[in-house]
Amino acid sequence: MPDTLARSLRLFFASLTGRGNWFPCVPPQMCQSGAVKTLFAVVLLSSLAVAQEPSLRQCRTEATRWRIGLFDAQGEADLESSPHLSAEDLMKRSDEMAECAARFKKNTFLEISRGYYIIYQWRVYKFVGRHNLLQQFAAEDQAGQR
Hints:
The protein is an all-alpha fold and 146 residues long.
């Protein structure tokens, strides 16, 4: 397998550069050690890695863990339930559960996705308020800047 991949990469770069050398090195001494080729192959292969879609089992496991404490007694998102999570983490969880909901058509996943998104929106709203940007937002929105 590695020989096939290396051969494919050599042919690909030879076609790009129009030379037999699979990687254009300047100065040529850089390629003699093979370190540049190895580094480039690692970078190329890592960029080709594709994120796998979550399985139903993974979605259920995450939903079970992430649902704990997310909603209050009335079933609404508890806006203060996840102070330990960053805004980025809130969005990652929301996105993952939305992907699970779309893939497996389960409302539970969609509810959890919405819960985390509502908490994210609440934090943005509080940030805008703390920095006195609500009036500026309202004025610009009224002026049609959307």
